[in-house]
């Protein structure tokens, strides 16, 4: 079998002295779309943040494109969409400026050539925001802002796309646009790992779901069927979550 | 014009011009990453360098540069490692720097309280040729960094986590921002004084933000405002015989107020234009509303 794009073996990580990942195994192969699911506090965000080197592993092994992550330098191959932070920078910035920073890894010394500028426009077209190029990002809605952050990751034309809760706080129209954008990425052969709270409109795209509970993998296989009211179209996931120690996963995905 | 015939005023105006460019240039990045008052802290630290310069009979500008850069590096290290007691450590650094400077000045033979106050509040008319050379060299470094690396610096100040995953050397760039801020402090020291340095890094940027919509425009307008206030402030201080630093800062605050007053009608006009471009229309009767617009 070919080399996995992401290979996490027996990974452990802790935040503030509390173990958050306890021996997580996760392999993502080229061209796969893998969803990482789980309740709040299950460690799914920590897992992707450790994959992109933002949380140090306390144990286990991690390889990206067959290279141990510590020695991995080819970050231009990875597109990352962090959780949307509410705090923007202290100075206004336009949609074009923010998305252009996603192209930096592909440029030499930060010089934006014509091809780079075109890639920025293409990325914005993919998420349906090309008409907002010159608008300041703080004038956007939550869903539009998320689309801009995804365009920023796409601007580098990555082979591997890692997204942390791309659908959180995103309106239905934006969710559909994002599903289309993701479909286009998959069609051109990109590998995708995304943290999701629930499958939603992305469900048909997902090859495999990995469910975490208390820092352990409890399911690795086909995406679980949504049941009950979670299966209804447009179901909005708004009910409050219990602590990490409570009940199985409250997404209703496994029941 | 007589002001341009005097050698000391020529030096003063050139120094003022360089400060007007460099302080808002690095200030834009500091404001973007919400470290607007970093310049103030570095100004305190620089005073120890000035004191050392007097004590050792070395150039106060170069000594201040060295000490200020060291202070900036320590500040970055505190930001990396000492999260819990970071603010206390910074307070020790700032006030230690200020107290150390006063003490060293007092110990030296040439350091008088007149000298001390000229460094604290600026004394542009006493800029020597030697000072000016130092200011030019340091300003060139600041301009090269802030303009040449603008995309990289924008990325790390806008979203540090994303910048790290892009593979940018974020720690090195953060250190560079801190060092550049330190260098700017010593560039501006003679013109506005160590206690008012931070004002020129923050106020032009704050004023510019009132009407600019992009980072690029904010940067350019802040530098424009910086140059306007330093040159007009220097000229005013010559004709009216008032201290240069205070004059420059007060003019900057006045300009901030003016632009803030202008910003509201401007924003309304922009909103009006946008509304006119996207007029709301009712769907034609019988037309189906798309599912996207209605959540069921």
UniProtKB/TrEMBL annotation, chain A:
User: Per its UniProt record, what InterPro entries does this chain match?
Assistant: AAA+_ATPase, ABC_transporter-like_ATP-bd, Metal_Ion_Import_ABC, P-loop_NTPase
Q: Does the keyword Transport apply?
A: yes
Would you say which domain of life the source belongs to? Bacteria
Q: What SUPFAM superfamilies has UniProt attached to this entry?
A: P-loop containing nucleoside triphosphate hydrolases (SSF52540)
- The record places domain ABC transporter at 6-239
Keywords from the named record: ATP-binding, Nucleotide-binding, Transport
Q: Which Pfam families match?
A: ABC_tran (PF00005)
Provide any one GO MF term from the record.
ATP binding
Tell me what this protein is called. Answer: Metal ABC transporter ATP-binding protein
TrEMBL record, chain B:
Keywords on this record? Answer: Membrane, Transmembrane, Transmembrane helix, Transport
A GO term from the CC aspect: ATP-binding cassette (ABC) transporter complex
The UniProt entry, under InterPro entries, shows: ABC_BtuC-like, ABC_TroCD
Query: Which Pfam families does UniProt cross-reference here?
Result: ABC-3
Fetch the SUPFAM superfamilies from UniProt: ABC transporter involved in vitamin B12 uptake, BtuC
Q: How does it sit in the membrane?
A: Multi-pass membrane protein
From the record, give the transmembrane residue ranges: 12-30, 62-81, 88-107, 219-240, 246-267
Family that this chain belongs to:
Belongs to the ABC-3 integral membrane protein family.
Q: What is this protein called?
A: Metal ABC transporter permease
Q: Native species of this protein?
A: Streptomyces klenkii
